[in-house]
Amino acid sequence: QLIFGIENEFVFEESANYDELPMYNKLEIFEHVLHITKGNDLRDLFWLKSWNADIWLKKRCEYMRSLAVMSMVGYILGLGDRHPCNLMIHRYTGKV
Known about the structure:
The chain is mainly alpha-helical and about 100 residues long. The chain contains 4 helices and no strands.
């Protein structure tokens, strides 16, 4: 079973007023949460939704391509606030 958003819960366990902290403190909390989590959520999600390794690899490649395109488009258009919590990923194809 995958638990999504656990990183966000860890951040707010460290500091309830995270948004008001200075950047240095935010960086310390980020590094701490990064250290205690594995960061394999997308890999595991794609693997659980794939019938075999070939399909998993296709989903992974499709994700990388579409994320690269969306990142370039977002940069050109000046979009901000792109992070994993607000990316919509198609669960069967891996497209962003």
